[in-house]
Amino acid sequence: MLKTNDALFGISKIEQHYNAISATIDINKDCDIFNGHFPGQPVIPGACMLQIVKEVLEQALGTPLRLKKAEHLKFLTMIDPETTPSANLDVAYKSVSEGHICITAKLVKGAVVCFKFQGTFIAG
User: Fold this and answer.
1) pTM tops 0.70, yes or no
2) Please, where are the H alpha helices in the chain?
3) Closest Cα partner for 67 from 54, 49, 58?
4) What are the backbone angles phi and psi of residue 77, rounded to the nearest 5°?
């Protein structure tokens, strides 16, 4: 459960299977970021969608990460926190060399894909 206006989201459920992560995120409609993005019509900024992927991956793998390469980013549908209190994140990953993790991720609300990402993170 979210408690402050600082947190954009919280993770209410996370499951990890062999090279795959599935998470349910709860969106904080009262987060201060929505005061500027956009007043009267809030939407999650695209950069924040990428940050959600990174933070969920860090939690599941238990290590800090930094983005090395974003090969494909597609922002397909806006997420309005007023009408979408939660979304699902699916991540498939593999280690390609020491510390390098290639991922494919999608953020989904209901049956609608909102964001797709393919890229590489570095552990540590």
Assistant:
1) yes
2) 46-61
3) 54
4) -145, 140
Q: Locate tokens 């009408």: which residue?
A: 83
Phi, psi (degrees; rounded to nearest 5) at 53:
-60, -50
In 3D, which of 97, 33, 108 has the Cα closest to residue 69?
A: 97
Structural domains present in the chain:
9-123 (3.10.129.10)
Length of the chain: 124
How many helices and strands (H and E) does the chain possess?
1, 6
The residue-averaged pLDDT of 28-37 equals 92
Can you say how many angstroms the Cα of residue 32 is from the centroid of all Cα atoms in its chain? 18
User: Which structure tokens are listed for 57?
Assistant: 């991956």
For residues 42-61, average pLDDT: 96
In DSSP terms, which residues pair with 123 in a beta bridge? 65
- Please write the tens of the pLDDT for every residue from 99-118: 899 999 999 999 999 999 99
Cβ pair 27, 5 in contact under 8 A: no
Radius of gyration of the chain (CA): 14
Contact 28, 5 (CB under 8 A): yes
